[in-house]
Write a structure and sequence with these properties.
There is one protein chain. The protein has helices spanning 11-15, 63-72, 151-159, 274-277, 325-328, and strands spanning 58-60, 78-81, 86-88, 95-97, 102-104, 116-118, 128-130, 136-138, 141-143, 170-174, 180-182, 185-187, 192-196, 203-206, 209-213, 220-224, 228-232, 235-239, 241-245, 252-256, 259-260, 269-271, 287-291, 294-295, 303-305, 312-316, 319-320, 329-331, 338-340, 344-345. By secondary structure, the chain is mainly β. It has one domain (11-345): 3 Solenoid (Pectate Lyase C-like). An eleven-stranded parallel beta sheet has the order 1-2-5-8-11-14-17-20-23-26-29, covered by helices on one side. A ten-stranded parallel beta sheet has the order 3-6-9-12-15-18-21-24-27-30, with no helix packed on it. Strand 1 (58-60), helix 2 and strand 2 form a beta-alpha-beta unit. The protein is globular, with a radius of gyration of 20 Å.
C-alpha cells in the first residue's frame, strides 16, 4: 500500500467522518484498525452522520407526549423527540416500541447533541423494549441511572451472596429481528446499554458512543444472549466489557471498525463459555468475527473467549496497542476453533 496512514492527534480527528477518513478507498486487506473507517460515517456518530432523522409523524417534548406517541405509532412511523428536549423517565420501565417504529432524535443535526431521555431509578430493566421486528432507535442520548463501577461494594455483596440486591438497568432490550440502534449516545446502564435476548437476530448496532456502562461484574455496551448482531463503527470507553455474550448456542457477533479508548475495568470484547454458565459444556457461542478494530485499552486484554466456539472465532486486521499478542487475545477454559490472523501489536501505528 503506497499511501501513508497518518497518525492523527486529537479525538475529534481520530474518530473521523466523511471528510477525515485516512483512506476512503483502502481495501480491508491493506489496513489495520478502525480509523480508515470505510463506513462513510464518523465512528461514534454525531457531527457528519448522514442517515439523520430530523422529524417524524409524532414530535414530542414531554414524557406524556412520548408515551402517547409510542402507543399510537404503527409500523413505518417515527416518534421524534425534539432536539433540545430533556425528559426525565425515572420510574418508567418496559416502555414499548412497536414493530417497524422508529424512535428518533437529531444528534448531529446542526450541532445538536440529540434529545436526552434519562432515568435515575436503579431498577430500570429495561427502559425500552421492542414489541416487533425492525425497530430503529437513532439520534438520541439515553442516560441510565448508574454510571459507577461500585467495585468494592459489589465484591462485598458477591461474597455475601447478595450481588443482585442492587437492581440493574438496561437501556434497550430486544427479542425481535432486525433491531437497529445507530447514532446514539448510551451511558450509565449498570447491566447493558443494549441487551439482545433470544430472538434478537440480525441486529445492527452502529455509529454510537457507548460509555460508563461499567458496574463491576456486569457493565456492557452490547450484551448478547442467543442472538446475533453486526456491531460496527462505535466509540467505546469506560465499559467493563464493551461487547459480551453469554456464549449459549446461537450467540454470535461480528465487530468491525470500532474504536476502543483507554479506560476500562475489564477486557474489551468477550464471549462466555460453559464454565461461566456451569452447564457442563465448553461452548462459547456459535461464531465470532472481530476485525478492523482499534484497541487502546492496553492495560486489559482486548479479546477473551472463555470457551470453544461451536463454529469459529476469527480475529484479524485489528490494531492492538498491546506489547504482545498474548496480552491482547486469550482463550480460556478450552482450546480450538480460534483463528488469529494478521493483526498489529504496536504502541504506534505502523506507517505504510
Amino acid at each position: 500500500m503506497s499511501k501513508t496512514i497518518v497518525i492523527i492527534v486529537g479525538l475529534a480527528l481520530l474518530i473521523g467522518g466523511p471528510d477525515t477518513q485516512a483512506d476512503k478507498k483502502a481495501s480491508p486487506e491493506t489496513f489495520f484498525g478502525a480509523e480508515p473507517n470505510p463506513t462513510g460515517d464518523p465512528i461514534g456518530g454525531g457531527k457528519g452522520y448522514r442517515r439523520l432523522v430530523t422529524g417524524g409523524d409524532f414530535t414530542v417534548r414531554t414524557l406524556d407526549e412520548l408515551l402517547a406517541g409510542l402507543k399510537k405509532a404503527t409500523s413505518g412511523q417515527t416518534v421524534y423527540v425534539a432536539d433540545t428536549t430533556e425528559i426525565d423517565m425515572s420510574g418508567q420501565e418496559n416502555v414499548v416500541i412497536g414493530g417497524g417504529v422508529t424512535l428518533a432524535g437529531g444528534r448531529g443535526h446542526k450541532g445538536s447533541r440529540g434529545a436526552l431521555l434519562f432515568s435515575t431509578t436503579l431498577k430500570t430493566f429495561p427502559l425500552f423494549r421492542t414489541a416487533g421486528d425492525s425497530v430503529r432507535v437513532t439520534g438520541l442520548r439515553l442516560r441510565g441511572p448508574d454510571p459507577d463501577r461500585r467495585t468494592e461494594q459489589m465484591r462485598k455483596l458477591h461474597r455475601q451472596g447478595k450481588y443482585y440486591s442492587i437492581p440493574n438497568s438496561d437501556g434497550i432490550q430486544c427479542t425481535h429481528k432486525a433491531l437497529e440502534v445507530d447514532n446514539c449516545e448510551l451511558s450509565g446502564w449498570s447491566h447493558a446499554a443494549v441487551f439482545l435476548r433470544k430472538g434478537a437476530t440480525k441486529a445492527h448496532v452502529h455509529h454510537n458512543h457507548m460509555h460508563h456502562n461499567q458496574r463491576s461484574g456486569l457493565g456492557y455496551g452490547v450484551c448478547l444472549d442467543q442472538s446475533d448482531a453486526l456491531i460496527e463503527a462505535n466509540l467505546f470507553d469506560y465499559c467493563r466489557h464493551h461487547i459480551a455474550g453469554t456464549g449459549r448456542p446461537r450467540t454470535s457477533y461480528e465487530a468491525r471498525y470500532n474504536l476502543v479508548l483507554a479506560h476500562a475495568n475489564g477486557h474489551s470484547f468477550d464471549m462466555h463459555g460453559g464454565a461461566d454458565r456451569k452447564d457442563g459444556t465448553d461452548v462459547a457461542g456459535d461464531w465470532i468475527r472481530i476485525h478492523h478494530n482499534t484497541f487502546k485499552a492496553a492495560g486489559v486484554a482486548a479479546v477473551v473467549i472463555r470457551g470453544k466456539p461451536r463454529r469459529t472465532c476469527d480475529i484479524h486486521h485489528n490494531w492492538f496497542l498491546h506489547a504482545a499478542p498474548a496480552r491482547a487475545v486469550r482463550q480460556t477454559n478450552a482450546k480450538g476453533n480460534m483463528n488469529i490472523g494478521k493483526n498489529e501489536y504496536t504502541a504506534r501505528r505502523i506507517e505504510r
